[in-house]
Amino acid sequence: MATLAELTRLGTGLSAQQLMHLQRLIAWWGMLADLSFSDLLLFVPVNDAGTEFAIAGQIRPTTSQTLYRDDRVGLLVDDIDRPLVSRAFALGEVVEGEVPIKPTNRRARVMCIPISYDEAVIGVLSRELVPDFAERRDPGELERTYLETFHQLARMIASGIFPFLGHDVDMDEIPRVGDGLLVVDPEARIQYASPNALSTLHRVGVVGNVAGRRLRDLGMEQPVIAQAIGTSGPVTAEVERNDTAVQLLAVPLVDRGNSRGAVVLLRDITELRLRDQLLVSKDATIREIHHRVKNNLQTISSLLRLQGRRLESEEAKSAIDESVRRIRAIALVHETLASESSDDVNLTEVAGMLARTVQESFTSPERPIRHEVVGDAGLIPSDVVTPLAVVLNELLQNAVDHAFPDDLLPMKGVGALVEIFLSRDGEHIRMVVRDNGIGVPEDFDSNDHKGLGVSIIRALVTSELGGKIAMRRRSDSTGSEALVEVPLPATDPANEKIEERVWDR
Fold first, then answer.
1. CB within 8 A of 434, min separation 6: which ones?
2. Structure confidence by residue, pLDDT tens digits, 367-377
3. How do strand 428-435 and strand 480-487 relate by DSSP bridges?
4. Does domain 171-268 sit in CATH 3.40.50.300?
5. Lowest mean pLDDT, pick from 72-76, 138-142, 232-236, 276-280
6. Cis status of the peptide bond prior to 441, with omega within 30 of 0
7. How far apart are CA 334 and CA 351, in angstroms?
8. Is the four-CA dihedral 350, 356, 357, 358 of positive or negative sign?
9. Which of 242-256, 289-303, 330-344, 418-432 is predicted with the least confidence, judged by mean pLDDT?
10. What is the pLDDT of residue 341?
11. Which architecture does CATH list for 344-505?
12. How far apart are CA 190 and CA 213, in angstroms?
């Protein structure tokens, strides 16, 4: 399917409105190809004389074999190669005939339909199939009905009525011709129903012969058809009956300003809707699980705090407090997951909550420490965010405990500051925690440090996440910085942009 950008690159000289009209036609032509049992090619002029054309689009039918196995989009032809195309473009009339198809010189039966917009011909839609194949097919009622419907739509294309201006439909969500087709007259009486359409109607409880009857007479009150006929535009709807969901698309047929009824496509989407319901139910269940995990973690934290208050050893109390803080970091991730519809978490949001928690718990007017989150790493899988949250919690706690001794606070002029920088490219997540405190010693080596917090950080980053970490004294001023980098395949191009690589600052 051609896009507006591709059409523009072909150098058609068409206006934006004309290109948009062609794009609307392309959105509908899956239905046109199926109704015509033929390949469809879109020709657009590339010179003012209308003697040279580019093939801007191509589609193959699902109801028949294709004439072309190769891709024809982008090929340039002239009025000698394609005289019928040139004639239809010049006259503004439907032209039929046979032409040789290069390079095989197979002959194809061709119907060239001028595409009109605002009383001007802007392109040609060519219906093409092998003549001998067309003659071999048994022209039954289904084929005759399909072809007649196609010819009516072709006349509407030539007159500028189709595709319908101001009636855009999401074509990815509509039924195909093979799903089921009804042809109704201006009174909404069914003139023809395809076998698949009859099967769908039977599943919703419609029995007996439907020819000559209205859907409302069959127990299906559907204003969608009358609405399509009355407004001269396509209308979509869904019907639920007898535990069966049916999707409808009504397309009006118009000839010289007079209604000729409508063609109605319908599809049984019961299984699709059941899957949607299962996904919604599964999603709700997962969120409930995350909510319960969060509550259980909070219960564990409460039990630990209760136990800590009964201890006399200050070392034991400190260990309990540290465990509570680590559990709280994990609980924050599950709290976020409980409110999300996916298993991805915004790392910036989690970092902000952790920073606020640390600031509220361990700062005071007498000991002011400000925390800031800078940058954005986008949505991250929860199995990555959870260990990163624990790592960040440890780094923030280290900054509060060691970077700012009580005799250093309040810091005159500057103030105590802990910054969290987050960034992401297509392959890595980077997190930098930087403070302006006293800084670690020049010879500090995190690999040799035996503290529990540093050991946890090192194990989570290197072993669990397969990343790397550096903890060092800042070179530009006093203070320390911890730099964490973990691999992550890019999944969302919108999140791949990185404005600054703080790892190398």
1. 418, 419, 421, 474, 479, 480, 481, 482
2. 678 888 888 88
3. antiparallel
4. no
5. 276-280
6. no
7. 13
8. positive
9. 330-344
10. 58
11. 2-Layer Sandwich (3.30)
12. 6
Closest CA to 155 of 257, 242, 58: 257
- Under CATH, domain 4-159 is a member of which superfamily? GAF domain (3.30.450.280)
Amino acid at residue number 168: D
User: Which range, 85-99, 218-232, 388-402, is most confident?
Assistant: 85-99
Residue labelled with tokens 């969608």: 224
Domains of the chain, by residue range, sit at 4-159, 171-268, 271-341, 344-505
CA distances to 123, 252, 291 from 216, in Å: 41, 18, 47
Kindly report the backbone phi and psi dihedral angles of residue 457, in degrees, each rounded to the nearest multiple of 5, phi listed first: -60, -50
Sign of the dihedral defined by the CA atoms of residues 493, 495, 499, 504, in that order = negative
Beta bridge partners of 333: none
At 318 the three-state DSSP class reads helix
Characterize 378-414 residue by residue with b for buried, 16 or more Cβ atoms within 10 angstroms of its Cβ, and e for exposed: bbbebebbbbbbbbbbbbbbbbbebbbeeeebeeeee
Query: Which residue is it, tokens 């855009």?
Result: 168
- In contact, 85 and 60? CB cutoff 8 Å: no
* DSSP structure class, residue 401: I
Instruction: Give the residue among 192, 190, 175 at the shortest CA–CA distance from 238.
Output: 175
Q: Quick one: pLDDT at residue 183?
A: 93
3-state helix, strand, coil in the chain (%, to 5): 40, 25, 30
Cα–Cα–Cα angle for 271, 273, 278, nearest 5°? 95
Report the alpha-carbon distance of residue 12 to residue 44 in Å, rounded.
6
Average pLDDT over residues 379-404: 82
Does this chain's domain 4-159 share its CATH topology with 171-268?
yes
